Amino acid sequence: MLFKSFVLLFTAILCHISNAAIVRDTSNITYTPQTHYFNWTTGQGHYNVDGTFDAEVITCDANDGKGPRFPWPSIKVNKGDRIILTLNNGFETKNTSIHFHGLFQNGTNQMDGPEMITQCPIAPNSSFTYNFTVDGQSGSYWYHSHTKGQYMDGMKGTVVIEDPKFPFEYDKEEVLEIAEWYHKDIDTLTKKFMNVYNPTGAEPIPQNLIMNNTMNLTWAVEPNTTYLLRFINTGGFVSQYIWIEDHEFEVVEVDGVYVDPYKASMLYITVAQRYTVLLKTKDTTNKNYAIMQKFDDTMLDVIPNDLVLNRTNYMMYNTNLSKPEENIVDELDFLDDFNLVPYGEYKEELLGEPDQRITLDVSMNNLKNGINYAFFNNITFTQPKVPTLMSVLSSGNDSSDPTVYGSNTNAFVLEKDEIIEVVLNNLDTGTHPFHLHGHIFQVIERGVARDDDQTPLNYDPTGNYSYPQYPMRRDTVYVRPQSNFVIRFKADNPGVWFFHCHIEWHLTQGLAVVFVEDPQTIQSTNSQQLTSNHKNVCEAVGVQYEGNAAANTKDYLDLTGENKQHKNLPKGFTAKGIVAMTFSCLSGILGLITIAVYGLMGMNDPEAQIDFIEELGLDPKEVVDENEENTSSLTSLINQNEQSKGNDSL
Ligand SMILES: *[C@@H]1O[C@H](CO)[C@@H](O)[C@H](O)[C@H]1NC(C)=O
Ligand SMILES: *[C@@H]1O[C@H](CO)[C@@H](O)[C@H](O)[C@H]1NC(C)=O
Ligand SMILES: *[C@@H]1O[C@H](CO)[C@@H](O)[C@H](O)[C@H]1NC(C)=O
Ligand SMILES: *[C@@H]1O[C@H](CO)[C@@H](O)[C@H](O)[C@H]1NC(C)=O
Ligand SMILES: *[C@@H]1O[C@H](CO)[C@@H](O)[C@H](O)[C@H]1NC(C)=O
Ligand SMILES: *[C@@H]1O[C@H](CO)[C@@H](O)[C@H](O)[C@H]1NC(C)=O
Ligand SMILES: *[C@@H]1O[C@H](CO)[C@@H](O)[C@H](O)[C@H]1NC(C)=O
Ligand SMILES: *[C@@H]1O[C@H](CO)[C@@H](O)[C@H](O)[C@H]1NC(C)=O
Ligand SMILES: *[C@@H]1O[C@H](CO)[C@@H](O)[C@H](O)[C@H]1NC(C)=O
Ligand SMILES: *[C@@H]1O[C@H](CO)[C@@H](O)[C@H](O)[C@H]1NC(C)=O
Ligand SMILES: *[C@@H]1O[C@H](CO)[C@@H](O)[C@H](O)[C@H]1NC(C)=O
Ligand SMILES: *[C@@H]1O[C@H](CO)[C@@H](O)[C@H](O)[C@H]1NC(C)=O
Ligand SMILES: [Cu+2]
User: Fold this and answer.
1) Is the CB of 318 under 6 A from ligand 9?
2) How many CB atoms lie within 10 A of CB 47?
3) What is the residue-averaged pLDDT of the chain?
4) What does the DSSP 8-state code read for residue 70?
5) Where is the composition biased (Polar residues) (predicted)?
6) Angle between helix 588-601 and 575-584 (nearest 10)
7) Is the shortest distance between the CB of 35 and ligand 5 below 6 Å?
8) CATH architecture designation of domain 31-166
9) Residue 227: beta bridge partners?
10) Residue nearest atom 7 of ligand 8, based on CA coordinates
């Protein structure tokens, strides 16, 4: 077995690593950093993205006199430049925020974006100024709201950081932004998703795959030209297979990390991942070619009949000739990113034995309110009352004690310069792309998928694994169904960094942990202190910028009053029970009663049964009346309770 996989790996490397890319001599190039100003205001509008439906979207007014626009602007800056972006909340009621995905924010943690982690939410009529440099980073990135799935409504855009010393030669550059699109807005979809009527946590099915915020995109190309082509998946749910008919990619960068040029005819791109490739066009113009996007349909709980799984876009050499037809391939033979090797300054030898190993088990289950949540180690992330960065800044010597950050935030404290290993075991049957803020990490191990009827393949800490000498590095990596991955990084970026599934549905379900990295250095660094603008934003939204997760400023180890997740299902009442019932029941109150009653049949403690019915917002007496046969055992207890209530009020 081991021998066989070795041979496979070896041949894979032989046929994919290429020397076609031409390396530039960049030794004499110098560059003076610039500052770029943006002044954006959020708003609500309508836009027909896919040509089939006028959807509610989030618009951007760039305050340039042109009014609100959609899609959002794309940003292009150079390595080392400064970005100063003022985000004005123009919504009537919604909070907002912006995160620059993949940027390290080294020394500027408060500019990272996730609300209640590094910043206060920006309230309507309030403005937050993001001010940071892109020191030492280049490549393909993106920005998006980090508030309540807002980026699924279009509050996002591509970010390209040009490197004046980019190592490979090319003639032209192009960005292709891929995503999925929903006709309904995120707030409407979330209400249906986080709902007792969706007990399996089935994610809403998108209507279409899109490219550059449209369908049927045309890309006019020049023949005989080497393009640096940047694929950026700004979606919130599905991974996509990407290929171009009869053309080959040479991958040179993933998630901002340069890699040894690697040939592939197909890419598998999860949401939030980026692949930058060299693409040499043909030297003739007698045909046009299909740019294909294909759903990873294993991520969909149901595949509606009218869902178009493959989308065709047009790579046009010659507009006089007809557009290409859909391109069909025999197999989905895509690049395994585990085989990539970082290039140049990004090449880093396998980090040594970890100082701290954090094991995270992913699972999904229902809590007592009937809703399906996602868990790391049985904890579903629940926002603290004070953004975690502000708890760090105000907690003095207590900042190294994870207690400060709450029992429901899954906070881990990392000490300065420690080697951190995260072992992630996916007990769930889905694929999940995980993103770490503030870092790229080495991916040293990734297990194969396990079928639904098998037991999950956990990482074995005593196992005999052979790790790559120069592991792949990136900021977003997927785990296969019921399998695992292991990543390592050095804790050399003081800050509070969110680690979460980038499927927005799963983040909403709580699939996140928080790394509090080197809290003492955060406290003692000038640039990490809250700007006065930031304090104003907190005041406007009514969030304290001092205190522990429970907003306690006196005793940082007293978490009384902190936000907590709902209780577990009562014993005997299983998630399966809820699922079975919801699918067989009618809508409305009658449906709820049926669920409650069915669940009750497996529950032997009448006290717990009543508790559960009340949790569902129902009157136990009513439930019993409507379902006499199934609940007779409850009747006496309810009567007793009523009697004792009556006695109390006398
Ligand atoms: C770089 O500069 C040095 C000194 O000016 C010169 O000798 C060398 O040819 C230059 N190299 C390139 C690639 O331009
Ligand atoms: C942003 O634009 C608005 C409207 O033109 C203006 O009032 C505001 O001063 C601008 N803010 C910044 C930081 O330039
Ligand atoms: C793309 O083509 C489909 C038909 O294949 C059409 O229904 C849709 O409106 C087109 N979308 C756009 C944005 O042109
Ligand atoms: C905005 O944030 C504040 C503070 O967290 C919160 O109380 C409020 O409910 C939020 N508003 C909305 C519409 O979510
Ligand atoms: C925002 O400011 C405008 C103009 O000052 C005012 O009309 C509006 O009521 C304010 N909205 C909120 C939510 O405070
Ligand atoms: C941005 O940050 C730099 C460095 O801290 C500071 O000098 C500058 O005043 C800031 N600009 C704004 C508009 O906040
Ligand atoms: C796609 O959108 C990007 C901006 O994100 C733009 O730079 C690029 O030119 C567009 N490509 C095509 C083919 O329209
Ligand atoms: C492409 O380049 C080759 C060799 O340089 C040349 O012979 C050919 O005419 C070019 N084709 C086009 C379409 O420009
Ligand atoms: C397309 O047709 C026009 C008119 O016949 C011609 O002038 C042009 O050169 C053609 N373009 C290409 C790329 O063949
Ligand atoms: C989609 O693409 C795959 C791969 O090219 C192909 O096998 C399949 O037939 C296509 N069509 C549909 C409807 O899935
Ligand atoms: C999560 O809960 C399950 C069931 O109670 C238990 O077996 C498991 O050990 C828990 N996992 C962790 C990491 O605490
Ligand atoms: C952050 O900056 C420090 C030096 O100021 C450097 O040692 C460290 O490697 C940087 N971390 C990252 C993730 O870039
Ligand atoms: Cu996920």
Assistant:
1) yes
2) 18
3) 91
4) S
5) 630-650
6) 140
7) no
8) Sandwich (2.60)
9) 172, 279
10) 283
Entry field: residues in the chain: 650
For ligand 10, is residue 265 a contact (CB within 6 Å)? no
Nearest to 309 by CA among 175, 432, 180, 193: 180
Q: How far is CA 525 from CA 112, 388, 548, in A?
A: 16, 17, 20
The distance of Cα 275 from the centroid of its chain, to the nearest Å, equals 17
Give me ligand 7 centre to Cα 159, in Å: 11
Domain topology for 356-541: Immunoglobulin-like (2.60.40)
- Cβ(247) to ligand 10 under 6 A? no
Query: What is the pLDDT confidence band of residue 16, given thresholds at 50, 70 and 90?
Result: low
User: Has residue 383 got a pLDDT over 50?
Assistant: yes
pLDDT in tens, 100-118: 999 999 999 999 999 999 9
Residue ID of nearest Cα to ligand 2 atom 4: 63
Do 148 and 383 meet the contact criterion of CB atoms below 8 Å apart?
Answer: no
Q: Amino acid letter at 321?
A: L
Cα 542 → chain centroid: 27
Q: Indicate whether residue 310 lines ligand 10 (CB < 6 A).
A: yes
Cβ atoms of 242 and 267 within 8 Å: the answer is: yes
Assign domain 168-342 to a CATH class: mainly beta
Domain boundaries, the chain: 31-166, 168-342, 356-541, 584-643
User: Do 414 and 358 form a contact (C-beta atoms < 8 A)?
Assistant: no
Mean pLDDT of 163-189: 98
Q: Name the pLDDT band for 5 (thresholds 50, 70, 90).
A: very low
Q: What is the pLDDT of residues 300-342, one digit of tens each?
A: 999 999 999 999 999 999 999 999 999 999 999 999 999 999 9
Cα 107 to ligand 6 centroid, rounded to whole Å: 13
Q: Which two tokens stand for residue 396?
A: 């003095």
Distance CA 201, CA 568 (A): 16
